[in-house]
Specification:
By secondary structure, the protein is α+β, with helices and mostly antiparallel strands. It has two domains: 86 residues, Arc Repressor Mutant, subunit A (Orthogonal Bundle); 110 residues, Jelly Rolls (Sandwich). 25% of the residues lie in helices and 22% in strands. The protein is built from five helices and eleven strands. It has a six-stranded antiparallel sheet with strand order 1-2-3-10-5-8, covered by helices on one side. Strands 7-6-9 form a three-stranded antiparallel sheet, with no helix packed on it. A two-stranded antiparallel sheet has the order 4-11. Strand 6 and strand 7 form a beta hairpin. The radius of gyration is 19 Å and the shape is globular. 32% of the residues are buried. Bound molecules: zinc ion. The site of zinc ion (ZN) has 6 residues, from helix 3. The site of zinc ion has 6 residues, from helix 3.
């Protein structure tokens, strides 16, 4: 977290942090959590505590007997999960949080943005996990996204700038998780473009008259 960035107000669910600490989140979701952790000291502490508890539990396991799984095997299993092994790092000059630098290089405005609508551009990030879309979003300053719901779950982490919607105001590091029950219409702050990481496990669906017009053409 940079010195001038206030601590985030919207955090992942504590159970998600425990899953992250256990290495049991799929890569795209782990990436979203790691990106939040880059901004959020409080959640980094929660993860560190969960890891300490997990380590203590492992240390208390009985020694392996015939046919039992031993501590070495358990540790080997823990090395394998799909979660991104990303330690939060000190900020550097680039405006891309550390966990994302494995996926994209350079400054946010210079990435290969693909224009989706007048006010929205995206960059797809590649992961090896089928069923998820991982993208960076750029919402133009002052622009409102079309009101939309999701067939699945969408997890968004603000990287730069900010937006507001029915769920509140979201600034750098803030996490929003929406499911099919939530229809929202994010509006970017007026003073600068808003950059987000968005992880979805199904395409979004537009609602309202604009949605009826755009749905056959737009999948963002
Ligand atoms: Zn947090």
């Amino acid at each position: 977290m940079t010195a001038h960035t206030p601590a985030p107000h919207h955090h992942p669910d504590p159970a998600v942090l425990v899953d992250y600490a256990a290495g049991s989140l799929r890569e795209p979701l782990a990436l979203a959590v790691a990106t939040h952790l880059w901004f959020c000291r409080a959640c980094r502490d929660t993860v560190a505590n969960a890891e300490a508890v997990g380590g203590a539990l492992l240390a208390a396991l009985p020694a392996a007997g015939d046919g039992d799984i031993g501590l070495a095997e358990v540790l080997a299993l823990l090395d394998e999960p799909a979660a991104v092994a990303v330690a939060p790092r000190a900020p550097v000059a680039a405006d891309i949080p550390g966990p994302l630098r494995h996926y994209v290089q350079g400054a946010l405005p210079a990435l290969p943005w693909r224009t989706t609508t007048k006010s929205l551009a995206t960059v797809d990030l590649t992961t090896d996990v089928p069923g998820y879309r991982v993208r960076l979003l750029r919402i133009a300053a002052g622009a409102a996204m079309p009101r939309h719901t999701h067939r699945g779950t969408e997890v968004t982490v603000v990287l730069k700038g900010g937006y507001s919607d029915e769920l509140g105001r979201f600034a750098p590091g803030d996490v929003a998780a929406t499911d099919p029950a939530v229809a929202h219409q994010p509006m970017a702050d007026a003073d600068q473009d808003c950059y987000c990481l968005a992880v979805t496990d199904a395409p979004v669906r537009l609602v309202g008259w604009l949605g009826l017009l755009l749905n056959p053409f737009v999948r963002f």
